[in-house]
Design brief:
Layout (H helix, E strand, L loop, with lengths): L4 E4 L3 H12 L4 E5 L12 E3 L5 H7 L3 H7 L7 E4 L5 E5 L9 E3 H10 L6 E3 L3 E8 L2 E6 L4 E4 L2 E3 L17 E12 L2 H4 L1 H7 L3 E6 L2 E7 L5 E7 L3 H5 L6 H10 L6 H8 L6 E7 L12 E3 L2 H4 L7 H18 L4 H17 L17 H11 L4
Parallel strand pairs: 1-2, 1-11, 2-7, 4-13, 11-17
Antiparallel strand pairs: 3-6, 4-5, 8-9, 9-10, 12-15, 12-16, 13-14, 14-15
Helix pairs in contact: 1-4, 1-11, 2-11, 6-9, 11-12
Function: An FAD-requiring monooxygenase active on some tetracycline antibiotic derivatives, which leads to their inactivation. Hydroxylates carbon 11a of tetracycline and some analogs.
Subunit structure: Monomer.
Catalytic activity: a tetracycline + NADPH + O2 + H(+) = an 11a-hydroxytetracycline + NADP(+) + H2O
Length: about 375
Amino acid sequence: MHTPVTIIGAGLGGLTLARVLHVHGFPVTVYEAEASPLARLQGGLLDIHDYNGQLALKTAGLMDEFHAIVLEGREAMRVLDPDGTVLLDRADDGTGGRPEVQRGELRRILLDSLPAGTVRWGHKAASIRALGEGRHEVEFDDGSRVVTGLLVGADGAWSRVRPLLSTATPEYAGTSFVETYLFDADTRHPAAAKAVGGGMLIVAAPGREIFAHRETGDTLHTYVSLARPLDWFAAIDFTDTAAATARIAREFDGWAPEITALITDGDTGPVLRPHYALPAEHRWDRVPGVTLLGDAAHLAAPNGEGANLAMLDGAELGQALAAHPDDIEAALTEYEQAMFPRSSEVVVFEGAEVHGIDTDDDRLHALIDMITKKDR
């Protein structure tokens, strides 16, 4: 009998770990604070990369299920100048390595791959204490407790497990998203729909960008990115939809109306999403019986890699445990030695080449460089 594994957090990383452990015959239980799989929306599109996220799904034996949820055509990309000038209009020819899926659908196939009862919903970790010899006791908000010989923190940015290993806490990364949605865009918001095209739209200027995805059907999901301090956002009353929308839109005065319509014509109120990050070189000394994955281990400002890295963490941790079923510490050491350098590498795309662009337009290269660079 393999050592039972306790995972805190039923996000993509924790569920990938649970699936790989299940495949290898490890008893595993996932404890999740949310009351049910449908307790909240799971976010928008994710591009799952062939060099990390897809590798994790292959390890989990879920590639067929993954291909079934891919949204065809969503790797198309348009890059515009703020005045609406088209700098790039690239179709999705089906040869890309970053197919798009809905986050909620990806989570569903992971959940469906696990035996009933693997995830214990409505269990929010309240406190965790070490018992010695690699054992830990987790107490939940409802007063229930579990003792485990192998604890994995897959519980995100504000992890309750992380303090067992590290004193690091997330700090504001200097940028925030403001999200909006446009529904039935092709008929109700045709100018914005045309600007976005069939996949992703990028429009950028120093300190402010607009990204938009075409999600399932003709729903447009907009991410307005602003490099502003937290107190700047705190001065905006996001409960007043009209006032908040007007204030955010003012930062884009002079931009083409089909672009700013992604803010001003939103069918939902603007939602603020501040970005937090752990230190880029976040490390910890080996502590018996416990480790972290995903944002709990290496939270970073959005760079297109977070979900992919969390899933790869889960897959590689599962493989390490399968390779060392009688030596947990050897497995955790092997996993962490690979995860630490991988998670601290700066994700830098080489200019326009990431999109297969062949052009001498210096404005386009400068824009792509600005969009895709990630500060250390």
